[in-house]
Amino acid sequence: MNLLIIGHARHGKTEAAKILKRERGFKFRDSSRAAAEIFLFEKLKGKYGYKDFEECYEDRVNHRREWFDEICQFNKYDPARLAKEIMDDADIYCGMRSNREIQKCIEDNVFDHIIEIYNPRLPKESSESFDIDFNALPQRYTIYNDRDLESLRLRLMELYMKLNVIELQKDIM
């Protein structure tokens, strides 16, 4: 089962992916980490004087718009390019931010299911670095992350069971 986990900054996407890894053996890759590994660190290290990969990755929060633009440029000819590279060795892509990318991934059937992690207590991201319209996505599942980690885990496990049933029904047909 290939999953896309999306949501605004700090709403709990990575934590959700870690729970699915720990509880169900999924392998995930974070979009920003993957982009830095594939091309962004080399592109930005001289510009910002990063000593190493981790320094570059940790500084991404200070350059959200630039990272968004660079990933869009990387995906210029195939909006699903980064997603396809990530999914070559992962079950979960965590953190897509571009509507153009997500629409191409839907068209190319890159993911079986899309999960939105949402915390209504936290602010939404600026449209400069996040332009996905959640309401326009077909068959998106929203997990509210508005309590503690155990509540998030239970909600994810409930959704996992539901998705398993859907996948079994697909296999039967």
Word description of this protein:
This protein has 173 residues and is an alpha/beta fold. The protein has one domain: Rossmann fold (3-Layer(aba) Sandwich). 50% of the residues lie in helices and 12% in strands. It contains seven helices and five strands; from the N terminus they run E-H-E-H-H-H-H-E-H-E-E-H. It has helices spanning 13-24, 31-48, 53-58, 64-74, 81-87, 99-107, 149-172, and strands spanning 3-6, 28-30, 92-94, 113-118, 140-144. Helix 1 (13-24) packs across helix 7 (149-172) and helix 2 (31-48) packs across helix 4. The longest helix has 24 residues, at 149-172. The two termini are 16 Å apart. The mean pLDDT is 95.
Task: Give a brief description.
The chain is of the alpha/beta class and 173 residues long.
Structural class: alpha/beta
Rounded to the nearest angstrom, the distance between the terminal CA atoms is 16 Å
Order of helices and strands: EHEHHHHEHEEH
Specify the helix fraction band: 40-55%
Q: Indicate the CATH topology.
A: Rossmann fold
% residues in beta strands = 5-15%
Spatial shape: globular
- CA radius of gyration is 16 Å
What name goes with the CATH superfamily?
A: P-loop containing nucleotide triphosphate hydrolases
Helices, strands, pairings?
Elements: E1 3-6, H1 13-24, E2 28-30, H2 31-48, H3 53-58, H4 64-74, H5 81-87, E3 92-94, H6 99-107, E4 113-118, E5 140-144, H7 149-172
Parallel strand pairs: 1-3, 1-4, 2-3, 4-5
Helix pairs in contact: 1-7, 2-4
Features of the shown structure:
single chain, 173 residues, alpha/beta, Rossmann fold, five-stranded parallel β-sheet, 7 helices, 50% helix, globular
